Batch of 4 targets.
Target 1
Amino acid sequence: MSTSLAGRAETPMQARLLAHLRDDGPLSRVQLADRMNVSRTTIAAEVNRLGELGLAHEVGPAASRGGRRSTMVDLAPGIRFVGISIGATGMSVGVTDGRLAVLATRTRECDIRQGPEAVLATALELARETLEECGVERPMGAGVGVPGPVDFHRGVSVSPPIMPGWDGYPVRDAVSRGLGCPVVLDNDVNVLAIGEQHAGVARAARDFLYVKIGTGIGCGIVVDGELYRGVDGCAGDIGHIRVQDFGPTCACGNTGCLEAFSGGAALARDATEAARAGRSPVLAELLAEKGELTAADIGIAVSRGDAQAVQLIRDSGHRVGQVLASLVSFFNPGLIVIGGRVTGLGHALLAEIRGVTYRRSLPLATGNLPIVLSELGDEGGVIGAARLISSSVYAPLGSGAS
């Protein structure tokens, strides 16, 4: 087994250089000098130092542009990061290289309500299995996403509505001890937004919203290319925006929240009710077969032509669209990406969300506003978590993860 532990960047210039190599691939010294607006001599010195730190290396001559050939520079081949994306009912764990290409992943069902010790033990087990598969003894760092508000600087969960026992738990430090490397912790939706920005449909977007519709509903906000977390780390918690004065009680204790109507758990509840009331023969049949229903079963019922299942999707998409229309008028994003497990319901849900959002927003704000499904799947959280820790590890010592 190899270890990927290396030094840390020592200067902001080195950090910028590493970020360019991560995001754009191998670049020549001339290209790096042009992008960073410094001399080639300065780039040569910084690349040499990064080579000594085990972070970058020269990989041969660049293509000839006339005159003396420049030298190509790339990230060190042994850099490895771990990405851990924990949701309410499942987790994805993966290992990436320095440019965040996913080398191996593991997924597993889990229940966030089991508490931090049990859930993190599973995450660490999957991380060690994946590292072993990749021949890595210790990674350079790990990023973790959890489905609730996070104090990013302290690395702890803060008052998470659907995570009993997690409030104040030192998630970052526990994972750091378990893997023997620096760790950063963030909300799962922020992690997914960052993954989408790095490798998904939002690569060219500077201002966009990533909306996750899973057991809960949340929104990652990217402003001018940077993630916006808010003062207390709970920016984008749109699942708890009230869409109706009265309605089911939400996990947060209030009534009428978007999540209580349109989250995955709410859809499963409504599907079960429809099945038991005899309004949906297909859902009743699925309930009899399986003993319980999930949001995914609504999609199965829709594929079999069940009218009640179609109505459930429309009702859910309508309420999500209501909230997104308000966000569009307020934020004026260039793109909205919809992700999360409920998006397995597909284009019926997307069509309703789009229709309501476009109808209820100002034409100026929606004239050039794509609303699209994420295409990254389970890898999105892994990539986003790895990107988080890469930004920290590539930054100068003292400015990153613990």
Target 2
Amino acid sequence: MSDIAAHLLRIEIGEDPAERLDKALAALVPEEAALSRSRLARLIAEGAVTRDGVAITDQKAKVAPGEVYLIAVEPPRAVETLAQDIPLTVLWEDEDLIVIDKPAGMVVHPAPGSEDGTLVNALLHHFGGRLSGIGGEARPGIVHRIDKETSGLLVVAKSDRAHHGLAAQFEKHTVHRHYTALVQGVPSAADPRLRGIRGVNFEQGGILKITSQLARHPTDRQRQAVLFTGGRHAVTRARTVEAFGGVAALMDCWLETGRTHQIRVHMAHVGHGLVGDPTYGGKRKLSVRAVGAAAAEAVANFPRQALHATTLGFTHPVTGEELSFTSPLPEDFEALLATLRAGPQIT
């Protein structure tokens, strides 16, 4: 380890852990720590992982429930983030915050493999290099994110006072967020299969409620997994807006919590994965008889998860004004729905 002061990450081993130290830690490290399996292995080898003050350098060492490990993580090195002139669709802007309608294909925050062309790169140019938390926060001004291939609304802080105020609202789950999703199958309260899935229940009006814990998948770090012990609490609600031939449905989904991939993984958990989702199995072909050849082909070839952040509402953290924004579906999503609405062509 270098002379730079390290942050100590405390990990307590829960019930039924992986037998090996590296795998157990990988499953329990918080997502915001951004520690890959390979980096964890290096930290173990370097003596940065201790138990009761003793360095554990064998990544295959056995672990037991209740053990507490400390991981000494050096602060990330400062990386210069480029300001890039990338067009933005701005719905609201004042001295404290900005609301953006993000296109599909844009990453929100720079990361390995996506160092430029991101929303933050664009905002740095838009703000003339000034962005809340630069040099302090790991994710300057970003209080929530949507996936690269998800389109729609998000709010970004421009001032520290807005940053703290917005973060508090997200933490308290008082931000109003609705997403439009196209899923495989048609969720129904009358479906005994759906009612038999753990974590599923239906509320008045046929609203589907999915409650679970979510955590990084134990073997695929690009995915999230549904758990019922450990992880982070997650609640998604959804209602069917429109059905297509009994094999696909347009859904209004809203979040009580906001976890990574939450809607995508929850809908896949209940057997209604998002159309076009390559990570959670949304590539099943629809019945040509049910929707027609053109629609079946359009769904099969849709290049991203059919998910759009449609509505965003919150209290302005400085003025106290109640703000609400709505984003229309992007052209690719609308075109897909138009093909489905055309139905089978009778000849």
Target 3
Amino acid sequence: MSLIPDATEILSRARADLRMGLPVVLVDGDRCLIVAAVETLSPDRFADLCALPDRPHLAITGRRAETLKARAYDGDLARIVLPRDVDLTWLNAVADPADDLRKPMKGPLVALRDGTADLDRLALRILKSARLLPAALNAPLAEVPAGLTRINAQPTRDILDQASPLHPIVGARVPLLSAENSRLHVFRPEDGGEEHYAVEIGRPPRDKPVLARLHSACFTGDVMGSLKCDCGPQLAGALAQMGQEGAGVLLYLNQEGRGIGLANKMRAYSLQDQGFDTVEANHRLGFEDDERDFRLGAALLKEMGFTSARLLTNNPNKIAMMERAGIAVTERVPLKVGENPHNAAYLATKAAKSGHLL
């Protein structure tokens, strides 16, 4: 029946539930796991989870486990046994590295060895996709409680493995300082996620490589003029070059903070103030170096009728992912702008640890 939500719509509903502090249930055959995001968990719901017949455990990523010196027996994650006298303050301290330097001793942390961690792994993926800290309080269940969102595991894994199809919603003329002959196109993903945008300068021919830039949203740099990164100058520089050439496409992708969201990006900034570099801060939060999906850019270009591009970028990973997604990159066009005393270390880290050509 078409009125019943499909797996993609249920996943979108689950993300909203978790962001509001409501648990969801993962189901795989006869196994059920109730999942709550530590970041949004209330004291009442924490107490109710601890009162379940099967005591809950804490799932954290291997990156966070490494910081906490916990054994990640499951490889890319660790299932931490809750101490008997645990409270929500302790749980948040394990999940969030804000006080790691002030209170480094969280343990000893005992990790589970037995049983499968596949549903815990899926829970962490869903939390990341919801832009929440990847720390989940999970417990096995005999049956799904009424009222909680039920998520079937395998269809959800398939959805998370794929880039959601994007559909054009509207386009309109928006004259820019750097290019008066420009249009803004809005694209909406099927999975209920954030919309993405394409700024089309002039009328670039579809049968030739288009001058293109994949630009990830940066509220602090693009809007506020932050000096901690080079994003704002890169955005302005890319649009200026397209304006000078009379044609181009800037793809503005809502993947703030290398795909971890603005709140987690600010957490990373706070860790940088403690002396950690960009990559180290992401790892301490439980994320990988870069959580973005540049297949989005390839999908947008294809939707607009392009099959090849001259890519404005310093990041070889963007080129590789675009080509894997079916867009031929005929030329890398450097974009070296925006260095200042506040971001020199940040740019050096991008070059040394992320392979950027700076």
Target 4
Amino acid sequence: MSKRIGFLSFGHWTPHHSSSTRTAADALLQSIDLAVAAEELGADGAYFRVHHFARQLGSPFPLLAAVGARTERIEIGTGVIDMRYANPLAFAEDAGATDLIAGGRLQLGISRGSPEQVIDGWRYFGFEPAEGETEADMARRHAELALMALSGEQFAQPNPRPMFPNPPGLLRIEPYSEGLRRRIWWGAGSDATARWAAQRGMNLMSSTLKDDESGEPFHVQQRKQIEAFRDEWAKQEHGFQPRVSVSRSIFAIVDERDRRYFLGSGERDDQFGYIDSTRSVFGRSYADEPDALVEQLRGDEAIQAADTLLLTVPNQLGVDYNAHVIESILKHVAPALGWR
């Protein structure tokens, strides 16, 4: 299966002499430069993680719009936006404007989110679960309202004496970007949420962490999650074929820098542990010479099942080195696996 291959950056920055990304401005500007470089190398996607109250990328739409204005072909997206923190209609406005700037290349990963830097950080953003809701329920409610708005549904009663003339009928969120509704992905941490995403017509974004639902190796559980998603999708009538992405830390050792940074650092085994009282499984990472990587990746059932692979990058090592990391996979690994 040929695959779209992109990068996923957490956008870390730290004011330390060992980091090439020492300020928030560094993280943002270098993210734009890396997306430009990745496009020139032939990569398919530039994706960015969103975390609040952290020295990471926290405000995605200005960054995505800037990347869209500087590039022409590459997909740009998120992995993922925590919908506990999002005003659904403001989200839809920002997403529509960004997609129009980018010429219809936006691919937005959203989710109920992961543990954050502060306790109940969404409360500081002005959100509270409704009576009887959990914070996860609130995130899904925000997501469904955002999907409605992104679909172009007209729902708002117009003012009979508006400042500017209105079109006839109820009003919708503007700007509206046609087709964006089909380019929303749900970051699913379980088989059940993968099926929920399929029911609502969202693509599936699965990372290196999921609920441990069987005790099997991570890549096997993730492949089964993908199958559950596709089986559920087949029962629906959404009118388009979904996409599925997985993310991995994969480093091809091709020069001395790679050996110094990563040789021997690949986690050969999955890790099991607890997050918010939920037993979870963390997928292994890969770091080896290209021939060995090819053999290892052939055995990763979830990578084989997905149509999109997102390579997590160590952004604090700088744009040039991260471009090298991406190029090494595109040049030395992907062709041998039939991905190029």
